[in-house]
Amino acid sequence: MKILLYAGSLDTVSRSGVGEAVRHQREALERLGIDYTMNEREDYDLVHLNTIFPDSLRMAKRAKRKGKKVVYHAHSTMEDFRNSFRGSNLAAPLFKRWIMRCYRSADLLITPTEYAKGLIQNYGVTNPIVSLSNGVDSAFFAPDPEAGRRFRLRHGLDEEAKVVLSVGHYIERKGVLDFVELARRMPDHQFYWFGYTPLYMVPPKIREAVETKLPNLRFPGYVNREELRDAYCGSNLFLFATHEETEGIVLLEALAAEIPVLVRDLPIYADWLEDGGTVYKARDLDAFERGIRGIAGRTLPDLTANGRKLALGLDLDAVGRRLVELYEIALHSNPVKPQAKILHPEV
User: Fold this and answer.
1) What is the pLDDT of residue 340?
2) Contacts within 8 Å (CB) and 24+ apart, 28-35
C-alpha cells in the first residue's frame, strides 16, 4: 500500500489547522513505516486529500479515472466558514454546495469528530464517512517548565504575571472580539493571541479589534511550533473562545501541554470535554471572566492531569493506526469498522 498525500495548494493552508493536520498525517505514517509520497507523479494506491481547492477536486477525478481510491478529509463545514473572512456569510451557501461536490468525490470521508460528521451528513452527503481525531503530538507538546521560562523571558513577563493565551486566525468565529473585550475588562492579566490573518481579508470590526492598543494585549503573529509549545508551557491558561469548530488542534495541544483550558460551551464539546472534569466551560463574557480569574488565581480545582490523559488517548500513534485501518478499508471497499474508543469518548 502506497499513499499519496496530495500536496496541491497546501502552501495556502500551511499556517492553519489543515496544514497541521497534514503534518500529523505525515508524522503518523512515518512512525508506522507506511509508504507514502507527496509527489503526484509517483505511483500510488490511494490518494488522501485535505483541502477543498479546485485542484484537489481535479486530483480526485484524475485518481478515479486511474482506478485509484480517494480518501477525503472533511476539515471544512459551512458552519465554520461563516464569520471568518470578508463576505464569508454571504458566500456560505455557495461554499456548502462546493464542499458537498468535493466530498462526494470520495470513496471514504474522514471528519475530525462525530459532530462534524453529523453536519456533513445533514447536508445530504451519503458517502461512507467516519470520524477520526486529527490527533496531537503529545511527546512534543508536553509539560516543560524550562520551555515556560523561555516564553516568559522572551516576552519580558515575570513569574507573577497571569497570562491568558489563545491561538488562531484573526476571525470573528475564533472569538477574537471576546478576547479583546476580556483584555479590556481584566487589566491585571496579560493576554496573548498567537496566529495571523492578513487584515485586508477580515471585516473592519476585526481589524479594529486586532489593532486595539492596550498595555496588557499582544498579537505577536504567527510563530513556529517550538515557540508555540513554549507559550503553552508558560501561560496560566488557554482560552478557546471559538464559536464553531470541527475539532481544534490547538485545544488538543494545550491539553497535552498540561495547561488549564477554558472553552466556550459548544455542542461539539458537550460529550468528550467534561466541564469541571477535563476543562472549564463558559457561555458569555461574564462567565469567561469568572473562569479566567478562578483558574489563574487557583481558586478552581486543577484539571490539567485529566486533560493530559485525554490528550494521550489522541496521540499520533493511536490516530495513525486507525488511519491505516481506514486506508485498508477504502482500498478493499469493506464496511467501515467501529472506531476504537481511544479516539473520542463519545464514539
Assistant:
1) 44
2) 28/135, 28/316, 28/317, 28/319, 28/320, 28/323, 29/3, 29/5, 29/320, 29/323, 29/324, 31/316, 31/317, 31/320, 32/320, 32/321, 32/324, 34/1, 34/3, 34/324, 35/1, 35/2, 35/3
